[in-house]
Amino acid sequence: MAKRKSDTRTCAIYLRISLDRKMDGLAIERQCEDCERRARERGWDIHIPEPSKPSPYCHYVDQSKSATDKTKRRPAYDRLVADYKAGRFDAIVCWDLDRLTRQPRQLEDWIDEAEDHGLVLLTVSESVDLSTENGRMFARVKAAVARAEVERMGQRRHRALVQHAALGKIPTGPRLYGYNWDGSVNEYEAEIVRTIYRRFLGGVAVKTMCRTLMGKPVGLPVKGLPCTPRPSYAVAVERNERLAAEGKPTKPLPPEQPWTNTMVTSMLRNPRYAGYSFKMTDADRRDRKNNAHTSKVPFIVKGDDGQPVMGEWEPLVSEADWLAVQDILDDPARKTNRKGCRRAHLGSGLFLCGTCGRPMAAHGGDKRHYNTYYCNRQDCPRPVYRRKEHVDAYVLAYVRAFLGRPDMRDLLVVRDDARLDAVNDEIKRQRMLISRAEDGYLEGALSAAKARSAREKAEAEIERLEAERAALVADGSPDGILSAADPVAAFDAATLDEQRAVINALCTVVVHVHDRADKDMVNIDVDIIPKTRLDGTDA
Predict the structure, then answer these.
(1) From CA 59, how far away is CA 51, in angstroms rounded?
(2) How many other CB atoms sit within 10 Å of the CB of residue 320?
(3) Which of 148, 56, 50, 158 is nearest to 102 (CA)?
(4) How far apart are CA 496 and CA 519, in angstroms?
(5) Coiled-coil segments, which residues (predicted)?
């Protein structure tokens, strides 16, 4: 942006409140009135980013958004930055400097804009002249003081929460599934929790219970478990009921999502269901080792006598049952993945389902399953199941035949790095669209149906792009095999990852539903689409 030659400016008004418990907008309205008055006193034009919305929400508004945590997004702030860079205004008005940012790094960005492009930052209490040394010093000191106060508040809050847990008080924050907001038992949900514990102790798998809760059981449903919305949806419905009872406008409900194994496992791991008080710090929660599947016993609060502190809420399961569940979950024999996450099959994640076009999974063969490739997508209209050894033999024969050709190297296609960069950029853009749709839903700008539609459209495009990227980039570099004196021998001696890389570089394998009448003719329901110049042109 070029510096202005006159005193007439166009300003943007940024409004923020860290926590608005009532969400009635009164605090935001007070900020807006003061900021608009300051802008009128200067004779500035006010840039309105969303003229279709009523005041104050026609301005840049982050309601119940913290400016302290750099990992938390502020949608209106991000839009403010983007619009400033686009030249839509050259001044910013906010109620106080810490309303705009509490992060010194962000403040330095605005200082750079003031020095380089003449940005003016105006607050209700004073004018912060970022173009002068004293103004910049004042802003930096104010930001540092605000940051220090936030850190002290965080220490006080942490100490209060530790004391809260040591006294066995009901934890603050979102209610636990099975309990009401006041800590009393929600009988409908509590019975679901008790049933999950009973059935798990009786040998029912977590995945089986998830399918019943979603209303999609395989075989008979688990007795006593109804088809019910997941906890976050139930909480959103209750929130709207409270808002309606208070005569306030309700918010759009989030899209219904399926139950997951992690959600049920976290219920089985939660000590609060047995009446124990427990406390995890933010650092504990961020530690990947302390996920929903790991034991929470180390985080149970102990009293001065070394005994667990019991909470003042009613337990839903007995201590004996909860401890028995922990023993089962901690049993190393339950671990099904003993080989790590490396690929163990030639075509898993590489061969595509002929019905839905997405990558297939593989069974390694055990007492319950054949060695098969299968489509594990729940929305696939006709999932493919094929014997693995038949498909592998057919694909390997094709690869060996191609590698044995005397003109093999002349038929190879050079990787298109420019297209690969374009695909990666487009994947990032589509993910950004998903994030914007979620922000629009949370802000009330998009309905749940529109947000869901935007997300599904972007996810479908990401899936298509990732398939194209998989075609452009192999799992490993096949150059050593393709340039060997005897490529066939080099391929046969290669590791599984190297063989997958060669297959990925040479062709796309599409597996179709098997026709039982032609069970021995694999080639008629496995398509191999070359990525080479077999017909004299690029694949």
Answers:
(1) 8
(2) 9
(3) 148
(4) 27
(5) 448-475
Instruction: Give the tens place of pLDDT for each residue, 255-269.
Output: 778 888 889 999 999
8 A C-beta contact, residue 527 and residue 512: yes
Name the CATH architecture for the domain at 10-149.
3-Layer(aba) Sandwich (3.40)
Helix, strand, coil % (nearest 5) of the chain? 45, 10, 40
What CA–CA distance (Å, rounded) separates 363 from 429?
Answer: 35
Maximum average pLDDT range among 300-309, 395-404, 478-487: 395-404
The per-residue pLDDT for range 449-505, each reduced to its tens digit, is 777 788 888 888 887 887 776 656 544 446 678 778 899 998 998 888 888 888 988
Return the axis-axis angle of helices 187-201 and 206-213, rounded to nearest 10°: 150
Residues 341-397 have pLDDT tens digits of: 567 789 988 999 999 988 998 877 655 556 889 998 877 888 888 889 889 999 999
- Pairing type for strands 352-353 and 507-511 reads parallel
Single-letter residue type at 172: T
Distances (CA, A) of 66 to 20, 23, 73, 381, 433: 11, 15, 9, 44, 23
What CATH code is assigned to 187-332? 3.90.1750
| Domain coordinates in residue numbering, the chain | 10-149, 187-332, 341-414+477-539, 416-472
CA distance 211 to 232: 17
